[in-house]
Specification:
1 helix, 4 strands, two-stranded antiparallel ribbon, alpha+beta
């Protein structure tokens, strides 16, 4: 029995059992595990990328500042 996940192209096979039903059940379970592993890997990569971007942020030099109740733009002098 072969199971294919069309969206990702992942393929698994199962032929250990004599029953087609059991082979189908095994193949679907393997496919579910494979998809879960790929999703977990993608999540950890995304989290790592976001954390690296967080560490690269530059803080303390505002481009614009506003003051007063009317939120008027205050002249900024960048050094």
């Amino acid at each position: 029995m072969r199971a294919i996940h069309i969206l990702t192209g992942l393929t698994v096979t199962a032929s250990e059992e004599r029953s087609q039903y059991m082979n189908k059940k095994l193949a679907l379970a393997r496919l579910a595990n494979l998809i879960k592993a790929k999703n977990d890997e993608g999540d950890s990569t995304h989290k790592r990328t976001m954390w690296m971007q967080h560490n690269e942020l530059e803080r303390g030099n505002p481009v614009r500042t506003y003051e007063g109740l009317g939120f008027k733009l205050r002249a900024n002098i960048r050094l």
